[in-house]
Design a protein that fits this description.
The protein is mostly helical and 229 residues long. 74% of the residues lie in helices and 6% in strands. The chain contains 8 helices and 3 strands, in the order ααβββαααααα. A 3-stranded mixed beta sheet has the order 1-3-2. Helix 5 packs antiparallel against helix 6. It is elongated, with a radius of gyration of 21 Å. The relative contact order is 0.13. The mean pLDDT is 81.
Length: 229
């Protein structure tokens, strides 16, 4: 029986951590500098912004956050390797983030929905910090089964909300990768045919980043459940 529990635990950990490892592995795999690329990821992002007339959208080089598009400031933010790099990963990720700017400028419903959910998540995260800080004290103060069930349910819902937001945003990411970025790179002639499979892999990794984050949030739920037992 102990062996079965061990095997089950290993399988569970693999399900949780392998997607995150795969995302990082794919992006590293295609991060080799390419002398045949005419520009960097940052330069491609600016070119696409100009080409699609995304007025008011800018590009920034960041060092302390992941690649993302900020709809509040209308800014495509790229990490240093992708902003300065001339690699397949840099080019594909730049196109992916600009695609979010295209979604925003077109007023696409999926992105608007995600923005609303993220705003809600900001408040739930603030509440979560206070709740998880005070929960042990509250549980000690109210040593009744009903109180413990209430606190446990609140904690579970807080963590589950983050998992749900990550999973709900997946269609937004898939749209940015495969209905926008990949056709842009292919039809615009920015990549040759031999590079398209690699670009497709990077774009899939960019979209699946949120799945990996959702699985990590799921691990937090299970830790909380174990703590509450």
């Amino acid at each position: 029986m102990a062996l079965l529990y061990t095997i089950g635990a290993l399988i569970f950990l693999a399900v949780i951590f392998l997607p995150q490892y795969w995302v990082r592995h794919v992006i590293r795999k295609y991060s080799t500098p390419r002398s045949d690329f005419p520009g960097t990821g940052g330069e491609l992002a600016q070119h696409l912004i100009d080409h699609y007339e995304l007025h008011g959208v800018g590009v920034e080089r960041i060092t302390d956050q992941g690649d993302h598009y900020d709809p509040l400031t209308r800014t495509v933010r790229l990490s240093a390797p992708n902003y300065d790099g001339r690699s397949l990963s840099a080019v594909a990720i730049a196109a992916h983030e600009v695609s979010h700017a295209i979604q925003h400028m077109r007023g696409e419903r999926l992105l608007s929905w995600r923005q609303s959910l993220v705003k809600i998540l900001v408040w739930t995260d603030r509440f979560a910090i206070a709740f998880f800080t005070l929960a042990p004290l509250l549980a000690l103060a109210a040593r009744t089964p009903a109180a413990l069930i209430l606190f446990g349910s609140i904690g579970f819902l807080i963590l589950a909300a983050r998992v749900a937001v990550h999973l709900i945003t997946l269609p937004v990411e898939l749209d940015a990768s495969f209905r926008k970025a990949l056709p842009i790179l292919e039809q615009g002639g920015y990549l040759n045919r031999n590079d398209l499979p690699g670009a497709r892999a990077v774009l899939k990794a960019a979209a699946m980043t949120y799945v990996a984050q959702a699985l990590m949030s799921l691990l937090d739920i299970l830790r909380f459940a174990r703590f509450g037992r």
